[in-house]
Amino acid sequence: MSGTREILQTGQGLADHGNYHEFCRLLGRFKVNYQLSELLNVEFYGEWLGLVAEFTTKSLLSWQWASNSVYYLLSLWSRLVTSVPYLKGDTPSLLDETVPKITEGFITSRINSVQASFADNSPDPDNPLENAESLQDQLESLPYLCRFKYESCSLFIINIMEPLLQAYTARSRLPASGDAAELSVIEGQIAWMVHIIAAILKIRQTVGCSQDSQELFDAELAARVLQLINITDTGVHAQRYQEISKQRLDRAILIFVQNFRRSYVGDQAMHASKLYARLSELLGLTDHLVLLNVIVGKIATNLKCYAECEDVIDHTLSLFQELASGYMTGKLLLKLESTKFIIANHSRENFPFLEEYRCVRSRTNFYYILGCLVFMEDGPVKFRSFMEPLLQVAVNLEASADAAFRTDVVKYAFTGLMRDLRGIAMATNSRRTYGLLFDWLYPSRMPLLLRAISLLTDEPEVTTPLLKFMSEFVLNKAQRLTFDSSSPNGILLFREISKLIVAYGSRILLLPNGTNIYRSKYKGIWISLTVLSRALCGNYVNFGVFELYGDRALADALDISLKMTLSIPLSDILTFKKLSKAYYGYMEVLFNNHITINSVLNLDTSTFVHIVTSLESGLKGLDTGISTQCASAIDSLAAFYFNNITAGDNPPSPAALNLARHIGELPSLFPQILKSLFEIIIFEDAGNQWSLSRPILSLIMISEQMFSDLRAQILASQPLDQQQRLSQCFDKLMTDVTRSLEPKNRDRFTQNLTTFRHDFRAK
């Protein structure tokens, strides 16, 4: 404290920006290491605090120079004020006088900064109003400072906010040809005030005043922003959606609404009677249902008017999703006329952003939210009327000639439909809701999907949304794909999946590799593998039926998917993360669930070895999830060999004979994998030891000679004086382990392996 006091008195070295920044960091760390009571006991605490306060105020005034350093100073003050309630003794902390001045200095500096940064009304990544991370840093400590002396602080904010609101209201009535630069500055200043109020309402803390009085001050501040919502979309302001300053202001309002909702709307409303009583007096908002109607009205306005601003659309949908996903707020939304309007009129005419290519990803989210709301109420009639606009699009597409599918209009309509349906599919979380979508789609709409993927295989902007929709549609989350025992729907669905995958795979393999091979080929292939993996392990298809009745759906899907995987070099599989996850996920499903009817075992030996070697490469990778999938696949293969060849009594099946032939042609395959597994267990800190122990036991069971050879090899690589101790570690590894793959035996081996690893690595 003495050293920092001296620097503050002399100002020595603070003209250098680097020194200045590090000095602010040093001050910011004070309260982390010392209690406020310890600081108070220092004899010159009062002088030190005054100097730090003066330094902070000066830093706030030179905001352009010190903008990245002020954050550390504010964090010091926020830590000091949060310690006040725990302070014992009579020594005054002197914070009552200094903190309000600093709070007011910060708010004033933000308002003043707008004039300078609005020299031109263009996007500026360094402007905190454009940069969410920078804004978060600047406002993180402010709520604690404001709530420390909340009454005076809220009054100060209102006194700034009122004239700005009056000026903004007056401008809404003037012609659009007025001074646009001046209006941009007003919008920027209001945006800062809204962000500050939003930050305060995010944190409810009772220091220095009661819960009731705090609610009243919250109501006073919130009322100003809620009042603003009515102004932003009226008069001349309704023509300014292209303006950067207007977009910044609406983003600020959305953040305010999000924070305010979390504190006071829905489940929290019953604990906020004082707040609603005051809001009723100020604005006539009697309860949270009326307030919710205002919020949804703003959401609808943004979705209608911001056709070309992706950022505001995303913020708006994020708020809408938050409201729809809350149990209580979701139910309340359905009572509102504004929500009913959105559900009944979700066409492109009412919401132009659905037509905008730059907002294309937002469509899925929009329909996910609408789907959640529609599915909250029972009733196929409501669902069918909701789907009417989408049905119209589908019917128009079905009527289009093949040649028309190449036109931009048809391609955009089709990809839009796929994104919309994917959102609705994401919202189906029960057997009932999934059944509604399934009946809408199958069988009438499925030929359209097959036709599109066949005609436009070389257009990834079409095939990707289609395959992603199917990937969601076949996923059996929350057991939603549960059909009646007499229903063939699971089998029928898989046949449609097979047709799509075969149509896509057989054509994509014939296409030449483009300049961007990931976009043109690999992306579609990995999504296809995900679709097939989810269908194969979804537990809603009895796959034995296909072979029994001579149906090629399963065999064809497996064949084409293997051809797709084999068309990609292993180096590329390991390079592209999403491709890698899909490939190994598919291999795990294939080896675990379909090894007996598995086309992997019917391949020639070199191809089979290539696939198994790729599993070994996955084991050695850094991704624990992929390593676990590879271990599971290898365990299934080794267990199949042990059960059907090593310990099998009956005549071996064709699949078992094929596997024996492959291993006979390359006997070093299993020993090499066992060696890799032991190296990972002994020398690496694998987080999935349990998963790795499974294939180790299965491989040891196949051949004790293989294990003995590996043991001798590992011991020979160790120092002579360690070999006897390490040999005993290997002896203990097989203690009480029998020659079987029963669950109890596996668990015993896993326990032994943990002990083995610990003892082997001990110095």
Automatic annotation (TrEMBL):
<dbReference type="InterPro" id="IPR057947">
    <property type="entry name" value="TPR_XPO7/RBP17"/>
</dbReference>
<keyword id="KW-0963">Cytoplasm</keyword>
<dbReference type="GO" id="GO:0006611">
    <property type="term" value="P:protein export from nucleus"/>
</dbReference>
<protein>
    <recommendedName>
        <fullName>Exportin-7/Ran-binding protein 17 TPR repeats domain-containing protein</fullName>
    </recommendedName>
</protein>
<keyword id="KW-0539">Nucleus</keyword>
<keyword id="KW-0813">Transport</keyword>
<feature type="domain" description="Exportin-7/Ran-binding protein 17 TPR repeats">
    <location>
        <begin position="125"/>
        <end position="361"/>
    </location>
</feature>
<dbReference type="GO" id="GO:0005737">
    <property type="term" value="C:cytoplasm"/>
</dbReference>
<dbReference type="GO" id="GO:0005643">
    <property type="term" value="C:nuclear pore"/>
</dbReference>
<dbReference type="GO" id="GO:0005049">
    <property type="term" value="F:nuclear export signal receptor activity"/>
</dbReference>
<dbReference type="Pfam" id="PF25795">
    <property type="entry name" value="TPR_XPO7"/>
</dbReference>
<comment type="similarity">
    <text>Belongs to the exportin family.</text>
</comment>
<dbReference type="InterPro" id="IPR011989">
    <property type="entry name" value="ARM-like"/>
</dbReference>
<keyword id="KW-0653">Protein transport</keyword>
<dbReference type="InterPro" id="IPR044189">
    <property type="entry name" value="XPO4/7-like"/>
</dbReference>
